[in-house]
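Problem: given the chain below (432 residues), write out its structure.
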Amino acid sequence: MRILVRFAAVMLVPTVMVLLMSCEGPRGKAGQDASETCATCHNPEVVDRIAVEFQFSKHHYGEVAFEEAGSTSCAVCHTQQGFQYVVENSVPATYTLNSSTGKYENKYVTVSSQALGEIGCATCHNQLHATYGDSDLVLTTTGPVGMLMWGSNKTINLTQDNSRSNLCVKCHQPRALATSTSLSDGNIVNYDSLALAPDSLFYDSTRTPSGPEIDRVRPSYRMHVHYGVVGAVFAGMGGVEFAGTETYQSSTHTTAASCQDCHMAAISGTSGGHTFMVQGNFNGCNQSGCHTSVSSSDAAYWTTPRANIKTLLNTLADKLNAIGGGQDVLHSESDSEENLWAGLTTGNYDGYLDIYDPSANPEGYWQNPTVSSSWTTDQKAENYGKPMFPSFTNAWIGALLNFQLCLRESSLGIHNYDYSHALLQNSIEQLP
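Solution.
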């Protein structure tokens, strides 16, 4: 027994020595050892506080990283590894023609082995623990952002605040509205073409399944620009810019403020800092050198602008719904857990279309013109028993996209009031 104890003790000594040597680690700034360098960040006032703030961020508690894991196109924004991959490999946000199939393909993708990981510290600071110095906190990317919705033919570059906003815009931008690969070549819809020919027919509901197809994109419940639209609206880009009574220009925010100014302002309650939340926190407005006393009761900078945009959203919603002949075509949801934009319009619209989908919208009023082979016989029968979705013009689809942009940027125009107002007003003028 004594021999075994001595043997165990002898074996333990080298292990302890290795652990002690590991704790010393690389030398830090100005000759600091590892423990001193780590303590620079890992203390109650820095990383520990940031970690608590981050718990209140949707980047942290959202479940989308798990839902989209494995999807090489969705993972570029919804997972840490996917985002790092497209940045490190400078993957362009383009749609490229496949000469073999004659169809366009979205090339802004990661690889399947990197399509995973929750959003975390290393998503935005991917050099953590590389030098144990200030350079570890350098942002993953601040370069100009090619817009996926334009196949990188247009670029967002917000240069204020050392271009930090470009990191946010990299993901918080709309996705492309692409044509059908079965009815067309799968290329993205050029928004300029919608604005230049507003009266042209975009979708013809009278076509027969066996007849000639002229509809390049069939309407569906999820026919939309996705959710991360705020970067495009903030930059004053991305809308269908119909000619109208208003000129397209951006408010001062676009060049004078950064995303971080407001979304990472001094903490107030559960907003600010690394929560990235703004609700009820006006520190960013009043401490960024722009304003001095903005609050939730401020008429000039808060209540009146938001009321104006809500009025325009309501008016445009009525115009969009008019093609239904008395039945809404926009999907409505009053539950704020289900609808992130509940309350932003009187009708509680979420930007979706009220088209039947057995999984996503089983109570949908309108018939889905594209029936999936995975649907059951009963589901197909239920769908065919519903009214056909109406035909619509370029003006209607363009107005719908603008409605989605101005609704889903979530601030009722605060991000870029001038651009939002022009998109909505000119869209309203395009519709009967």
